[in-house]
UniProtKB/TrEMBL annotation:
Residues 341-578 form the Piezo THU9 and anchor domain. One of its GO terms (biological process) is detection of mechanical stimulus. Residues 608-791 form the Piezo non-specific cation channel cap domain. It is a multi-pass membrane protein. It is found in: Membrane. The chain crosses the membrane at residues 12-31, 37-64, 76-95, 121-141, 342-365, 385-405, 412-431, 443-461, 556-577. This is Piezo non-specific cation channel R-Ras-binding domain-containing protein. Keywords: Membrane, Transmembrane, Transmembrane helix. Belongs to the PIEZO (TC 1.A.75) family. PANTHER family: PIEZO NON-SPECIFIC CATION CHANNEL R-RAS-BINDING DOMAIN-CONTAINING PROTEIN, PIEZO-TYPE MECHANOSENSITIVE ION CHANNEL COMPONENT. InterPro entries: Piezo (IPR027272), Piezo_cap_dom (IPR031334), Piezo_THU9_anchor (IPR056770), THU_Piezo (IPR056768).
Length: 796
């Protein structure tokens, strides 16, 4: 009483910080009870820290051994991991001593691939190698935990110790050297090969998970007053197993053999029958059931099933009567394998990896932080991007096929291949990511590989417990329970494009069935409809009484919100693709240039080219009537309209060698075309900042070839071109040039050669209106409508 009162008093006057201590104590206790999981997370963390070769050893230890072995990692495994961690810490420390205190600068790519930093670290040594120290700390803790439960390790005996009747004193010195040197090596290699073979068998065939239990039902006619003595039952079963073992191995020396052993855990009366006693035994060791027992202490993958089979054989062979077991055996049930099906979780993780690669592709490959801008720049999907997504997609399909066929060996090979492929790909991209955006690319790689690590861990757990049997493969995960989560998950699954159809076709193709594909899909639709109806009945109608009106919250969430969503679906696309898009911003012309080319069968020459053009906004022009007397621009936003006035004289000289000009003049008699080209520069859209508009003059508006020849020869100074280009045109948001809806006037002008030293060309607009903003610029003039473009919120 006093002790209870004192404890209550202490709790009542506890300081506020004690609750934090309780939480930390609880978290520490939780970590201790799941310390192996914490170690596994640290194994992945250290690889994601620097993507080094030294850290790959932890990945191999995790995904190839620790998560796959059915008995769990042994104490020796944790000791080896601890030694390797100490070795890595020592190497990192020696490397820092060399580069910081010895003044050496080592620039070897292989050292960086191993995990050594290229430059001196400015932070403390522990902080710079924090994941490595975390692995060391938690591995040390796990080693101490497993050391408490470790049992004596029985190593295989030497071959010469098992040779009955062999006298070691009669051996020659060569035989003794061979026995001392080669036989232990042979035994060790044989033991390793046997363990690897057993490990492969456990992966492909599965095995029971510890602890291993066997339930024995005994017929007890009359229960003793002091109860059934557990030790008596345990010794009787062990004696029975020893007799069965002696019968199998009667031709061998019993000194080197061991029978199966069990330890009783509980004895209780059956609730169904009062004369039946249920005894539960834990299997300590299961002797092999083969006739040949030359393999000493062979570990069975199914010890509970083997011991149950031995007891059943003893029951049929009348061994119980000979050993004096007190009660008749009614039935024996082995522990069996634990059947789990994790395919749904594996598929979800792989699907997330697929979408992550699709979204973060350019952050990794293109080394840019913009979201999916690569498609706007290139107007096509890069082939590497498509191939990567195709590989991930077909790996998901192959995993589904293996799952439907219950092909355990194929699953193990597929798992190892996926582990090697993703680890190699992520490491390769991490090593060769360009420095400017290296952090963004590596962050995306960490997210992708962390998600894939979840998938690999689930696959390893599935391999550890065995591939599901064909009778349990076709249970749909989402329709197994009626919950809100399953309902919305099933809705999302049916909403993803082609996912439902692909699953139906693949399942029908890989399943032995008499149904046609059409009938199979009909059954799938019926099953889906029944599940949705059941969800509606259990989740909605069961809570609503018949005749009761719906609540306002239900009407608001299910009616008004849905109505608003439908309104947005109807009108939002039209609004977004209209000129009234609220995200549209002005996209004026920043620069303009003009070029006039003359083209013949002999080639193409540029007569006139200027980059000296003045851009004036329509807001800053007063005399709109003189520029647009017909009112062509009245329907457009004045902020999008610009007046472009260019210099009449070319900004480049006319410098053509006489021989070239003479050959070109001869080709004018055969064919002649004049091309007028505008080149406009804007800020958007990305990849289409430059808009080029080429206008080829019709043949009826071209000058006579003789006029052009005379101008080139110097006999004339100019020739006239009619209807060269439209005075008004618009540039769309996508970067295309369009005429106005009305028929606008076409510009005509004179091309004049100025015989100076050197010569140059000029273009005079003969119908140019008088505009004060253009001043004395009587060259090419145009009025351009540059349409607005939407703002890209994910770009800088």
């Amino acid at each position: 009483m006093d002790q209870t009162f004192s404890i209550a008093s202490e709790n009542s006057f506890a300081v506020p910080g004690s609750s934090l201590g309780v939480i930390l104590s609880y978290m520490w206790g939780l970590m201790q009870s799941n310390n192996d999981v914490v170690c596994y997370c640290c194994f992945v963390l250290i690889f994601l820290w620097n993507f080094s070769l030294l850290s790959m050893v932890y990945l191999g230890a995790l995904f190839i051994y620790a998560l796959c072995v059915n008995t769990g990692p042994s104490h020796l495994f944790w000791i080896l991991v601890l030694i390797y961690s100490e070795f890595c810490i020592l190497l990192q420390y020696l490397y820092q001593i060399i580069i910081q205190h010895c003044g050496l600068s080592i620039h070897v790519n292989f050292l960086q691939e191993l995990g050594f930093p290229q430059y001196k670290i400015m932070s403390p040594f522990v902080i710079s190698n924090l994941p490595l120290f975390l692995v060391y700390l938690f591995t040390l803790l796990q080693t101490s935990i497993t050391a408490r439960n470790v049992q004596n390790i029985n190593f295989p005996r030497r071959v010469y110790e098992l040779r009955e009747g062999e006298d070691a004193n009669n051996q020659s010195w060569k035989q003794r050297v061979q026995a001392l040197l080669f036989l232990p090596l042979y035994c060790s290699v044989t033991h390793i090969i046997r363990r690897l073979f057993r490990y492969w068998i456990s992966l492909t065939q599965g095995g029971e998970s510890a602890p291993y239990f066997v339930q024995v039902s005994m017929d007890v006619k009359q229960w003793p007053e002091d109860g059934i003595q557990p030790k008596r039952i345990e010794s009787g079963i062990n004696e029975l197993l020893s007799v069965m073992h002696s019968r199998r191995c009667k031709n061998l020396n019993g000194n080197f053999l061991s029978a199966s052993r069990v330890r009783i855990q509980s004895i209780e009366r059956s609730t169904e029958s009062p004369h039946i006693a249920l005894a539960v035994f834990e299997v300590l060791y299961a002797s092999p059931l083969t006739e040949s027992c030359s393999v000493i202490w062979q570990n069975s993958l199914t010890p509970a099933a083997d011991v149950a089979r031995e007891i059943s054989m003893a029951k049929g062979g009348c061994v119980f009567e000979n050993t004096g077991f007190p009660y008749p055996i009614v039935s024996v049930i082995g522990g069996g394998k634990r059947e789990i099906d994790l395919y749904a979780y594996i598929f979800c993780a792989d699907l997330v990896v697929f979408f992550l690669v699709a979204f973060f592709y350019q952050s990794i490959i293109k080394n840019k932080s913009e979201f999916l801008e690569v498609y706007q720049l290139e107007d096509q999907f890069p082939k590497e991007f498509v191939f990567t997504l195709m590989v991930i997609f077909f790996l998901i399909v192959l995993d589904r096929i293996i799952y439907l066929c219950s092909f355990a060996t194929g699953k193990v090979i597929f798992y190892l291949f996926s582990l090697a492929l993703f680890t190699y790909s992520v490491t390769r991209y991490a090593w060769y990511t360009a420095p400017p955006n290296k952090q963004a690319g590596r962050f995306a790689l960490r997210v992708i590989y962390l998600t894939k690590a979840v998938s690999l861990a689930l696959q390893a757990t599935q391999i550890r417990y065995g591939i599901p049997r064909e009778s349990t493969l076709y249970r749909q995960f989402l329709t197994s329970h009626v919950t809100k989560l399953n309902y919305w998950g099933f809705r999302l699954y049916r909403a993803l494009p082609f996912l439902y159809e692909l699953r139906c076709v693949l399942d029908w193709s890989c399943t032995t069935t008499s149904l046609r594909m059409y009938d199979w899909q009909k059954l799938e639709d019926i099953h889906a409809s029944l599940f949705l109806v059941k969800c509606d009945v259990d989740l909605n109608r069961s809570r609503h009484h018949q005749g009761e009106k719906q609540s306002k919250m239900t009407k608001f969430c299910g009616g008004i919100c849905l109505f608003l969503v439908l309104i947005c679906v109807i009108w939002a696309p039209m609004l977004m693709y209209s000129s009234g898009n609220p995200t549209n911003i002005a996209n004026p012309i920043k620069d303009a240039s003009l070029r006039v080319d003359i083209k013949t069968e002999g080639g193409r020459l540029t007569l006139f080219e200027t980059t000296l053009c003045r851009k004036t906004s329509w807001d800053n022009i007063d005399d709109h009537a003189s520029l647009d007397p017909q009112g062509y621009l009245s329907t457009y936003n004045v902020k999008d309209i610009q007046l472009i006035c260019c210099q009449p004289d070319a900004s480049r000289l006319w410098i053509v060698p006489p021989m070239v000009q003479a050959r070109f003049i001869r080709s004018l008699w055969w064919s002649m075309k004049i091309i007028f080209s505008w080149e406009l520069m804007r800020d958007r859209p990305k990849g289409k900042e430059v808009v080029k508009y080429d206008s080829e003059v019709d043949d009826m508006n071209l000058p006579e070839p003789l006029e052009v020849i005379k101008v080139l020869n110097g006999s004339l100074n100019s020739f006239r071109i009619y209807s060269v280009y439209p005075r008004f045109f618009r540039v769309t948001g996508s970067g295309d040039v369009r005429f106005l809806e009305h028929e606008v006037e076409l510009v005509s002008g004179d091309l004049v050669i100025n015989h100076g030293n050197p010569e140059w060309w000029s273009f005079h607009d003969i119908d140019a209106p008088v505009v004060s903003k253009c001043g004395n610029l009587a060259g090419p003039m145009a009025i351009v409508v540059s349409e607005e473009t939407p703002r890209k919120f994910w770009t800088k």
